[in-house]
Amino acid sequence: MPSSSEPSSTAASSADSKPGVDGDAATKVERVHDFAGKLQQPSFWPKVLDYVKWQRALRKAEAEGRALPEMPELAPLSINLDLTTACNYACDHCIDWDILNGRDRHEDDLLREAIQRMAERGLRSVILIGGGEPTLYPRFVDFVAFLKGLDLSVSVVTNGSRGDRILQAAPYFTKGDWVRLSLDSGSNDTFVRMHHPKQKSLTLDEICSWIPKIKAANPDLSLGFSFVITWVGGSRGEVKVVENIHEMVAAAKRASDASFDYISFKPFLERQEDGSEVLDPAKTEAELQAVLARIQANIDEARRVVRPDFKVLASTNLRVLMTGTWRDYTNQPKVCHMQMLRQVVTPLGTFNCPAHRGVAKAKLGDKDLWAVAAAGQHDTSRVLRDFDATVECGEVTCLYNGTNWWLEELVSASSELPEEAPGTESRDWFL
Ligand code: SF4
Question: In whole angstroms, what is the distance from residue 377 CA to residue 101 CA?
Answer without folding.
Answer: 30
